[in-house]
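Posting this for the archive.
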Amino acid sequence: MPAVTADTLTLPKIDPPGPGRVNRAVRSVSTAPAGFEGEGFPVRRAFAGIDRSELDPFIHMDQMGEVDYAPGEPRGTDWHPHRGFETVTYMIDGTFRHQDSHGGGGVIRNGATQWMTAGGGILHIETPPEELVISGGMFHGVQLWVNLPAADKMTAPRYQSLEGDQVSLLSSPDGGALVRLIAGDVAGHRGPGATYTPITVAHVTIAPGAQLALAWRPDFNALAYVLMGSGNVGAEGRPVTTGQLALFGPGDTLTLAGGGTRPLDVLLLGGRSIREPIATYGPFVMNTRAELLQAMEDFRAGRLGTIPADGLRPYRP
């Protein structure tokens, strides 16, 4: 169960879309393959097989868990570089520690989001705290990569810590859906995340049998990734379940409905396409191959930052 919950009957209500709106149909549904990241924690590759032009301005997304670790099992990543984009780590349930070479860092827990702008270059680490490694416990989160336009790729690194109680909490008119708005705006309500590229990021929980209709910017793409549960999405009510990504076509309204016997949890994403060439290699997202080669040379030369003297290390019992 997501850590951030609320009484939906008392929250600000999302106005239903007005007449004459175009309800977006589902263009495709894909199932995320499973894999491992970093020191060996399980992930689902949410964007695998999707044409990059359909995702723009998003680059990559992993669902981390949901897994209930036994003692000694939790894993994270060691120090590694980034350049040219932003990493968004959203902890639905559990705890992660973050530190970077630009002075950002802290504990990400239970509904909090760490938003790191790598910009011109940074080193960072994300790892479970020692007490979680020793005891085990629930771990469930998402890491999303958001591209930066060419004009901002070499911007100075930035770190935002968005605690769970800072997220804008909204509900559908009947209280059947809870919307946690992390960044962007929905129906005149804004999330706390500051972004270079105009985007919307929201975690939605819909009760079985309930429905949510959202006005959605027509100049944004629209993606719905199912974190947990099952239900129906889009104008045609396309069935979706855990680990599936629905890509929507054009329009200005999104419709989602809960099904089954447990709530439907969906991460909703949308943004204005940057429409620039993309060149990627591992942890670097640039516009040209020459820029990738420069990023690798700068990393080897230590120009992307240095690990602090008190730098975190993965705890291995």
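The radius of gyration is 19 Å. Helices lie at 52-55, 130-135, 289-300.
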